[in-house]
Amino acid sequence: MSDAALLDRRQLLLGAGLAAAGVGAQAGVNPGSRPLALATPADQQALQHLRIAFGSCAKQSKPQPIWATVRAARPDLFLFLGDNLYADARDAATLRQRYAEFARVEALQAFRRDVPHLATWDDHDYGDDDVGAEYPHKQLSQQLFCDAWNEPADSPRRSRPGIYEAYRIERAGRSVQVLVLDLRFNRSAPVIDPTLKQGYTAMYAKAKMGLGAMKGWYVPNPDPAATLLGETQWAWLGERLAEPADVRVLVSSVQLAAEGTGWECWANFPHERQRLAALIRAKRAEGLVVVSGDMHYADLSRWEAPGCYPLWDLTASGLTEVWDIPTPNSRRVGEVFAGLNFGLLDIDFSTPVPTLHFSVRDLQGDTRLQRRLSLDQLRLPPHA
Ligand SMILES: [Fe+2]
Question: Each residue of 61-70: pLDDT tens digit?
């Protein structure tokens, strides 16, 4: 390892410590995006780039060899997109026990000590399979989450109705905003199609034999009052989207752009998804891309949101979990990758128009999906 690389490594370690200690947290109600202190790269070329890695769905009872591969990719930041452990807890004692198990996953915790990271939760680490606002232990879960992810005692994430937060990274004279959503704490009940649910086992058996597609049992909730974020989080998000930023990364624990999967996703709450596009438009929040998890495979989707620019959503799911029968998704671009994986977003500020490169890597570090975007493709129409 060169001296420059060693220096770079030391700075990365320092950055991890700062992030874990919550440096940059601001006091007060709804403060702006929290400045995130990342290590300054040692070489000139790296100063013009930012590499954000991300992934989801890590079962604490399983080996987690993928962390060595993520580490080798040398990300500036890692985003835990949810289902970071599987609590699946119907009672408080089990919830506490699962977090204790999570703390003992050495491969993951060693990675966390070395690499700056942020986290949100999905159903399994929030509480139980597919649960939302009705989960009876959500206050305890919020406390356990904030303890496990080293939130300071005065962090707003401990007192808000949910663990959402926004961060700001400065690189190459540009700013990257990371918007971490909470899609569990306030989520209304999804609508289940009983016929799909009853026929699930037969559909699975047929799909396993290659005789048809299979999807989940959720259908869109037509109730305009049904919510994913809750009003307080919507108000907060509007304020954050009004802040200037060159690039915005929206962290969504479930798929935002996908359509037709039948599993948990924004499509189950069509009014909420339309509201997001309308909010992006109203705040003129350009340069936004989405990263999501939950599905147990990797998937790239594009939503031609009305009056907006295309919303690209890269799903990276499967740090330990893999589902080998991908569901239909009419907004899919390319193929699914059903193997252990993590995602990368490489932002290149060295060109006059910055570029974003989305990719998915497997356990060996080989690239399985990729897409290059220009920031010019993430601009609002002039009169939207
Ligand atoms: Fe999930």
Answer: 999 999 999 9
